């Protein structure tokens, strides 16, 4: 079993839901990244999604865009993030997932990037602008390094497409819960529960809901329909405001749902 499979198995064996926080690498500098990863592991996160700052982040809302601009202003690059992860890997046992658009990967070179990610100890990749029809450009390299591609489905995907993506899935299936960009939402589409239940039924791997989730109540609500949640914008805000106790509460909320 790889690190991702083990982490999900451990979570499910304990009857808990998974909680995957998203943070922007280099927001506050790369030392901050190390410190945040260590803190999130201590709080009981299941895995961590690490965003690579990019100048044209089409799926991101204002909070993550702003965090990306701060990180770019700090001089953060894909290469510097990978070396930070490599330094940290001996002391962190959580699965680490990189979220980046294709452009920085092209700039790095696909084979060189995947090899560097594998050697740094990256467990998974989320690439929102890589549709399944195009993924063969990277999959053979990922297989060699044993890095998993985490695939996304959205509320507007057809049932056929959901099925196909779920069948191909590795690590976990990322179920996007809004039609739009990342960022905190007060309310969700009324069909979100049905959508997550359908996916959960179709998918051979864990299904995690992400986009818009920001409160312990929402963590619990989404957790009823699937295997856990991803929370980004709210985590970034709470780190900025130094409200670490609230981050801990959010993560703990995923541990006390029982269905
Ligand atoms: O910020 P939110 O609304 O909590 O959404 C999660 C999200 O931040 C993270 O998973 C993410 C950030 N950028 C993305 C782009 C595509 C898919 C996912 C992401």
Would you give an account of this structure?
46% of the residues lie in helices and 14% in strands. The chain is built from twelve helices and eight strands. The chain has helices at residues 3-13, 30-43, 62-73, 78-88, 102-108, 110-120, 139-145, 159-168, 192-202, 216-223, 233-240, 244-253; strands spanning 18-24, 48-51, 96-99, 124-126, 148-153, 173-176, 207-210, 228-231. Strands 1-2-3-4-5-6-7-8 form an eight-stranded parallel beta barrel, surrounded by eight helices. The structure holds indole-3-glycerol phosphate (IGP). Indole-3-glycerol phosphate binds next to β2, β8 and α11.
Kindly summarize this structure in a few lines.
The protein is built from 12 helices and 8 strands. By secondary structure, it is an alpha/beta fold. Helix 2 crosses helix 4.
């Amino acid at each position: 079993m790889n690190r991702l499979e083990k982490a999900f198995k451990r979570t499910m064996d304990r009857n808990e839901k998974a909680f995957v926080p998203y943070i922007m690498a280099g927001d506050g500098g790369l030392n901050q990244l190390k410190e945040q990863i260590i803190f999130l592991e201590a709080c009981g996160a299941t895995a961590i999604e690490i965003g690579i700052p990019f100048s044209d982040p089409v799926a991101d809302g204002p909070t993550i865009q702003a965090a990306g601009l701060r990180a770019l202003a700090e001089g953060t690059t894909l290469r510097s993030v990978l070396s930070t992860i490599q330094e940290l890997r001996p002391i962190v046992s959580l699965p680490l997932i990189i979220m980046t658009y294709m452009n920085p990967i092209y700039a790095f070179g696909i084979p060189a990037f995947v090899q560097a990610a594998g050697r740094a100890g990256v467990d998974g990749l989320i690439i929102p602008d890589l549709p399944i029809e195009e993924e063969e450009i990277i999959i053979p390299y990922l297989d060699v390094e044993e890095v998993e591609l985490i695939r996304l489905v959205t509320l507007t995907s057809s049932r056929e497409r959901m099925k196909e993506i779920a069948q191909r899935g590795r690590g976990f299936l990322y179920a996007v819960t809004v039609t739009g960009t990342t960022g905190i939402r007060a309310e969700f589409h009324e069909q979100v529960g049905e959508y997550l239940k359908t996916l959960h039924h179709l998918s051979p791997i864990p299904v995690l809901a992400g986009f818009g989730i920001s409160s312990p109540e929402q963590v619990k609500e989404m957790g009823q329909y699937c295997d856990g949640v991803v929370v980004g914008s709210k985590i970034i805000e709470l780190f900025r405001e130094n409200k670490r106790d609230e981050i801990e509460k959010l993560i703990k909320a995923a541990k006390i749902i029982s269905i």
